[in-house]
Amino acid sequence: MAVVFEALVKNDKDGGWFIELKDTTDGRVVVCKDLSEFEVKIQDLGEDYGGRVDEVKWISHENLSPQNEQKLRVGMMEYHEKYKDQLDSKEEEK
């Protein structure tokens, strides 16, 4: 069974953004106010599957502002750069 999470990015009421992280296996949803919190919560949810997460499907809510989408992209690029070596080694394992 593939472990798939969905990350739905939405605008918050203060003009920022947040992520609704959903475990598609059991339907649990947690809210992440930033990428640091997302990192912690995806690890917590992934522990139920031995730390294995096969895929994260990123979805932008239809009302997500272009500014918030850009902020998220920049944050994701910074995250990727920070963990580049770990991400590359996981890709090689596949």
Structure in words:
The chain is of the alpha+beta class and 94 residues long. It has one domain (4-93). The protein contains 3 helices and 4 strands. A 4-stranded mixed beta sheet has the order 3-2-1-4. The longest helix has 17 residues, at 66-82.
Task: Write a compact overview of the structure shown.
The protein is of the alpha+beta class and about 90 residues long.
Poorly predicted runs of 5 or more residues: none
Q: Can you list the strand order of the major beta sheet?
A: 3-2-1-4
Separation of termini? 16 Å
Name the shape in a single word.
globular
> What is the mean pLDDT?
89
Radius of gyration over C-alpha positions, nearest whole angstrom: 14 Å
Q: Give the structural class.
A: alpha+beta
The succession of helices and strands, N to C, reads: EEEHEHH
Number of helices: 3
Largest sheet: 4 strands, mixed
What count of domains describes the coordinates?
1
**What percentage of the residues does DSSP assign to strands (E)?**
25-35%
Tally of DSSP β-strands: 4
Estimated helix fraction: 40-55%
